[in-house]
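Cast an eye over this sequence plus tokens and explain the fold to me:
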Amino acid sequence: MNKIDEFDNNFDTDEVELLYINDRPVWGPDIYDLETVVEFRNNAIEKINSLINGGALIIPFAKNAERSVLIFLNILTGKLLDLKYKVHYDQFLCYPYLNKPLPEINIWRIHHAPRYKNLNIMMENWIKPGSIAILTGLDELFDKDLLKIPFNIFSEFSIPNVQFDQEIENALMSVLNEIKENNITKKAHHVVCLCDGWGVPLPFDLLSKILDQDPDTLSPVIERAYQKEILFWIEPDRPPSLLVSNVSEAYALQYLKFLSKEKLISLNDYISIFEVIDCKIQDERYTALKLIQSWLVNTKIRYSISSEKFCITQIKEFILKNWNLLKKIAFSGNSIEHLVWSQCLAQVNMFNYSYEILESGLNNDPKNIFLNQYKAHLLALWCRVNPAKIKNAHTAFAEATNICKNNIWLWQARGDFEAKSGNRMGAETCFKKALEIDPKNIHTLAARADMNLDYGLLDRAELDLKKADIIDSQNMYIKHLKGRLFFYQGKWHDAEQEWEKMLISNKQHPFALQSLGNMARERGLWDQAQVYLNKALTFDPENIAVLLEIGVLKRKWGQFELDMGNVQKAKEFFSSSFKILQKAKMLEPENPKVIVEISSLDRLLGNIETAIERLEKILLVWPNNIHARHLLALCFADQGLYIEMETQFKKILSNNKKNILVYYSLARINIIKNNISRAKEYLRQADRIEQSLNLPIPKKINTLIEKNRILKLMNKNEEL
């Protein structure tokens, strides 16, 4: 019997003492017996061994299971060490970012991995054959679709426990009763919980400054609270410092929820923490950075405290209001701090600020591969709201791929960018480069299939999806793309099956719910579409794509009711759509799709001048936005400004002579003008174009519906 097996046999699962990690207690029940944990260990090692070319073992867990996860990780790590693996360990408690381990490391354990903003970029540069990352984190924080590297999911610890919530609540009431007579302990507990609810323990010296207490006076207070298990000292190995936490993050989060019921807490409650941070002290800079990125990591926690006071727009306002202070903190850090601050600011669409910090980092460290890589990603994001940055993004990708010539994920990202910029051949070249590095890389095959689906090249997309399916038939993104392929082919049942399979694995999967909602809308199944999309919004209230999809649903539903003569119902749907889209606009003020959709509603509600004003503004920034230009032309037609209308349509056709919808619109307008012969000519042109194109089935159906509407209108006018 080796030492590890001996440890397994002697392990006492009835032990009720708190489990500590870096001197911090991790509260919660032991929900599995030893025999089960050892079985889990063996299954995990099997999954690790299957990642031949490197990848990640993802271990999401419910908040009641963290203690069990840590016990499991200790047993798993012991076995891996026994198998001669070199293991490195990181956790969010210490550093707000990840640093690459030593070259000889082949197992990288990262606890609370989703909270690290540089997780993806670090994984993309570290994973290679023989390298395995073990990533743990709260189930609700893991967005596995963002992780591009190969991975296996170990989901045994993601079962919630209602009884645990009650235990936490009971403990909270007990502590609040204990500290109500001691003002300093009460204040210390409050400030610690404000941070620890987000997984951020406070440096002791920083806590002293926040409370305006001499450290020598505060120290015995914390010590007494420690003896009563109210507050805890943490002494992480790196950096050498003293932190203060409470009994667990779940406890602190319960405290924040409890507090918000009596008096709404907001981000303003945190200003006193940021104001006393000393930029020269690393741990204090870390506190600021960890708080910002923890606020951004997931909407569910923020909404559970206060949906109004912790939304993305409020975080952005907080950053803007305190920018001079935050900028000073960000600029005082090292290269990776610059990187993570830049990523945080990009998430709230503060691209100018994000780029400023990134450039500062590059000025100090011009060859840093992570900064150069993220610069390309940042500019690609920025292009979505500012096309003037497209040229800069092309240059940044060229520089980054020159520095990191064999980074498959960077070539893939460059391919995605080229595809979305309309350069399909350039994208093909980038995807080819990526596949030369790894011919069986499922993510690159998926990315190329995604591009070909967007371009309507269904046969090419199908070939890549078949290859990817052979490599990993359980890959969620491949299932999503297969669903899209079936949808475009008109195989509704097959598409529904693929997306439903995704929901079996993850009932919250946004792609599956959004896709099912979109397909139901396209088929006119309004109620069914609403159920899917509302469910998606419940899981992620700030998902722009879902908000936009619901807005479109409500508008089209309203138009259907209008066609049926139900004017009042139509207005109700239009009003509902407007509210939803306004929320999306608050989250992303410059999102062109949202602005065009709001303009479409303005037109339907008779606010033609407002719609024209919006559309003309967006076309100054996005002159090639076909949807905006087409809608502007229709608005001019509504006002009888036919010369202006024709000018807009000519601009569209100068770039794309095969735009069927333009010919249909021209046909409709000429019918209204009673120029039937001209309308018929436009319809004939549309028919010729439609026959020359291999349109996906949903687009074919939509063109047939539009043609049928025009013919009905034409027959009605001819009868008159």
Summary: The longest strand covers residues 55-61.
